[in-house]
Amino acid sequence: MTHIALFASGNGSNAENIVRYFSGNRNISVSLIVSNRRDAYVHERARQLGVKSLTFSRVEFEDGLAVTDVLRVCGVDFIVLAGFLLKVSQPLLDAFPGRIINIHPALLPKFGGKGMYGDRVHRAVVDAGENESGITVHYVDGQYDGGEIIFQATCEVLPEDSPEEVARKVHVLEYAFFPKVIEKVIAEGRRSD
Ligand code: GAR
């Protein structure tokens, strides 16, 4: 059994979708939701879903020790960033080598980097007059939105689309593909262990 920790900073709709996807799965379970914000709506979702959720401060995420200890105690062996807005620190990367993945709401390497998250990304896509956007799932390294790309899916952006409409299209892709990509990455990792 692979135990996932989901890291989320805000609303947590992807986190909820992932928890629901893996409920009843014999190989993968979501053991914990971790946030950097005590008031994030993801905690309410976690409560309703019956999943433990915890908050750590920015300093604790940077230091990594307390977070790593809790993840170990909870038996976590894989981390999924689902709308998590802090950079993952080196101690955490070292504790989970090749076992942290992220979703970004655009087609990296475009529209990534520090400060590019959530609605800001969709606004930048519209402002740039792009005719497509999408999602990128990638391994996490020490850079914002760096790391090897695992999967991308695209959606059309029409000239009249608002950032909110692009966000809606991107969320549809996220809900459809992200859990399946997580499942595949974990299954392939298990085969090569
Ligand atoms: C998602 O669209 C995710 O791709 C994005 O934040 C949103 C969170 O929504 N992540 C980033 O921008 C990371 N750079 P949610 O909280 O409803 O899942």
Describe the protein in words.
With 193 residues, this protein is α/β, with parallel strands linked by helices. The chain has two domains: 97 residues, Formyl transferase, N-terminal domain (Rossmann fold), CATH 3.40.50; 70 residues, Formyl transferase, N-terminal domain (Rossmann fold). Helix content is 41%, strand content 22%. The protein has seven helices and seven strands; from the N terminus they run βαβαβααβαβαββα. A seven-stranded mixed β-sheet has the order 3-2-1-4-5-6-7. α1 links the parallel β1 and β2. α1 packs parallel to α7 and α6 crosses α7. It starts with a strand and ends with a helix. The mean pLDDT is 96. The site of glycinamide ribonucleotide has 15 residues, from α1, β5 and α6.
DSSP E strands, number: 7
Q: Write the element-wise H/E pattern from the N-terminal end onward.
A: EHEHEHHEHEHEEH
Q: Report the mean per-residue pLDDT as an integer.
A: 96
**If helices are DSSP runs of H or I spanning 4 or more residues, what is the number of helices?**
7
**Residues in helices, as a percent range:** 40-55%
| Reported CATH architecture of the largest domain | 3-Layer(aba) Sandwich
List keywords for this structure.
single chain, 22% strand, binds glycinamide ribonucleotide, 2 domains, Rossmann fold, 7 strands, 193 residues, 41% helix, 7 helices, alpha/beta
Task: Give a topology summary.
Elements: E1 2-7, H1 13-22, E2 28-35, H2 41-49, E3 53-55, H3 58-63, H4 65-73, E4 78-81, H5 90-95, E5 100-104, H6 118-127, E6 132-139, E7 149-156, H7 163-192
Parallel strand pairs: 1-2, 1-4, 2-3, 4-5
Antiparallel strand pairs: 5-6, 6-7
Helix pairs in contact: 1-2, 1-7, 6-7
The chain binds glycinamide ribonucleotide.
